[in-house]
Amino acid sequence: METASEQIITPAQAWQKLREGNERFVAGTARHPNQDAPRRSSLVEGQNPFAVIFGCSDSRLAAEIIFDLGLGDAFVVRTAGQVIDDAVLGSLEYSVGTLGVPLIVVLGHDNCGAVTAAKATVDTGEMPTGYVRTLVERITPSVLAAQRKDLHEVNDMVVEHTKQTAERLVESSRLISAAVEEGQVAVIGLSYRLAEGNAELVSGFGALEHPAVLRSSLPK
Q1: H-only helix segments in the chain
Q2: Can you name the residues that pair with 188 across neighbouring β-strands?
Q3: Cα–Cα distance, 91 to 211 (Å, whole number)
Q4: How far apart are CA 218 and CA 220, in angstroms?
Q5: What is the pLDDT of residues 87-134, one digit of tens each?
Q6: Quick one: which of 14, 77, 137, 201 has the fewest CB in 10 Å?
Q7: CA dist list (Å): 43 to 36, 40, 103, 120, 182
Q8: CATH for the 11-205 domain, from 3.30.2130.30, 1.10.3720.10, 3.50.50.60, 3.40.1050.10
Q9: Using CA atoms in the order 63, 66, 71, 75, what is the torsion angle rounded to 10 degrees?
Q10: CB 139 within 8 A of CB 157
Q11: Closest Cα to residue 27, out of 19, 35, 37?
Q12: How far apart are CA 134 and CA 137, in angstroms?
């Protein structure tokens, strides 16, 4: 059992742990780590998560399950369509500035209802009512960006939205962008496939020591 006071790990090591956990989940060999009473007791006085996962609120996208994690492993923030607002940015800055988390994951998924709603609005010009309208307004730029790239399927738009969200996150937070520039934090975008269960890397900011990682410059 890992303890809450385990040594700080690098962004690359955090990404490796997530990859291995997702591979176990896909293969049906999940270990369900850090879910026992001793682990629960060890976390009473503090936490030391190794990753923050900012994902869609969809009930099929339970981060701790798809990455085979346990108590204290991940700091999780979720909104429909992984839409960024001030509360999200504050939560992510807290995870980096106070908890020292080395990896931020933006987690999207195929067949996303929020992205589908934004696509419908772009196609028909009809806006939804209530606060769903706010979600659609914030996702619409990603839908338009996908269309400019001649991508018109919802799942292609989901990937584009994940990329756009990761980039906007780095652009919006000086604290996070500085941590990325200093090599303390990496920000990656993952697209989850509901049927297969695998999370595919689609974008990245900050150097990671794995050949599959996309090495991107910070947005200007």
Answers
A1: 11-27, 37-42, 63-66, 86-97, 113-124, 132-148, 154-172, 174-181
A2: 105, 204
A3: 30
A4: 6
A5: 999 999 999 999 999 999 999 999 999 999 999 999 999 999 999 999
A6: 137
A7: 11, 6, 20, 44, 29
A8: 3.40.1050.10
A9: -30
A10: no
A11: 19
A12: 5
Question: What is the domain partition of the chain in residue ranges?
Answer: 11-205
Exposure pattern of 118-150 as b/e (b: 16+ CB <10 Å)?
bbbbbeeeeeeeeeeeebbebbbebbeebbeee
Q: Is 110 exposed, middle or buried, given 0-12, 13-18 or 19+ CB atoms closer than 10 A?
A: middle
How far apart, in whole angstroms, are the C-alpha atoms of residue 164 and residue 102? 21
Instruction: Give the model confidence (pLDDT) of 180-218 as tens digits.
Output: 999 999 999 999 999 999 999 999 998 775 434 434 444
Task: Decide if 92 contacts 175 (C-beta within 8 A).
Answer: no
